[in-house]
Predict the structure of Serine hydrolase.
Amino acid sequence: MFFVVACLLLSAAMPSIARAEANDRIPQIERFIQEQQELSKIPGISVVIVEKGKTVYQKGFGYADVKTKTKVTPHTLFEIGSTTKAFTALAILQLEQKGQLKRSDDVRSYIPWLELKYNGELQSITLDQLMHHTSGIASNTIVKIPESKADNALELTVRTLLDQPLNRKPGSSFEYATINYDVLGYVIERVTKQPYDLYIKQHILDPIGMKDSYAGLHQLQSGAIATGYKLGFMKEQAYNAPEYRGNIPAGYIVSNSNDIAKWLQLQLGQISTREIEQYLIQQSHEPDLSVEPFDQNTHYAAGWGVQHGSGQSYLLHTGENPTFSSYFILKPDEQVGVAILANMKSSFTTAIGQGVMNIWEGREAANRHADSYQQLDQILTYILAAIAAIGVLLLLLSVRVISMTIRKQRINRPLNLKRALWINLHTLSVTIVILLLIKAPNMLLGGVTWGFINVWAPTSVAALFYSLLALSAIYYIYIMLLILTRKPR
């Protein structure tokens, strides 16, 4: 009898104990996020945690707009980056369930002109391979995605693949290429006879109740989207990124933490609709085990990374756009999900999401994360300061030579063979330096252009390029002044 009473008392106390543990964790989570936000320089962060059908924590940190001091709220909209891919994959599974396509079909069944080659031979690529990033399409194809607001931008994006050979044989191995999902988005358009963004809004977002979410910036009916920022000179820099309407299926759903909480609940089986049955969600979580894992114990599913190890199983995905980033992580066995939205491209967003999940599960969160872009920006800031000092010195020396020439303290020298050779040598040298600067990304980074770097990299990278061009010009002018003038004897 005593045992039964004790069990009843203990079971009655369990919810209170669970709430107390959660309340203890929340201050720790908030301290961790604030520390990481300060280190990362991310202006605004939105966080939501769901557990067993409820939103157990939701809060905004920092600013949606630094200039106006507008704070992040649960209603603040963010571009979610590549976490968009799970929405596109779910739409493909939905259309398969309706009998409108098969994942085992060759993509040319829907896009006949999309003929792609590996080692000169035409290849068959299935929708399933596109979904799992085993199509053979190279990761650097992102460089050629065109800036466009046109209605046919998605087709224009897919057509960029026609002059790019496959990087590997389809189905042989994993290679993450964001454009795989743009191809899937175009398949959705061809099958449904309606624009991708309208299909996703009507058949995915609205049925879930994600009424404040949109497929692409052009759909926005609200001014609540956060200002996007890039890192530059060791602080946030507001940046108006180009619009890539042809990249929406891979990275441009716009949402807020209120709606993302519903998306997480759908993934955890707490929400279902007539359009989106739990069977489809379970299918989207099935990883492709036919290839090697792309990360430690992690295989790719339908827009999700599936991580197994030490008796734990997680669903996760990172999203990064030029001025936004996100991270979603779920633990289906415990019915827990965490989402982080941020208005700066930063790998700290992923580190924050992983840390929040660790703390919620009673583990320590790693505090020593390093963002490669942040490190690069810091180094370049110091280099730019040195370049600026050298440039100012050369400029002052050039002004001094010109001033001395005006005051007749230096006189013009007639052009002879020796001076002509010196002029030609320096002209050639500066020309080579400028050409190397222009071609450097393509030579060092495999087809990357300065235009792409200007959009995606910290502002200090573009500043370095223009500073070196300016320094080359100032140096050339100074040398020409020295060659063509002299002090009178």
About this structure: Confidence is low (pLDDT under 50) at residues 1-20. The longest strand covers residues 54-65.
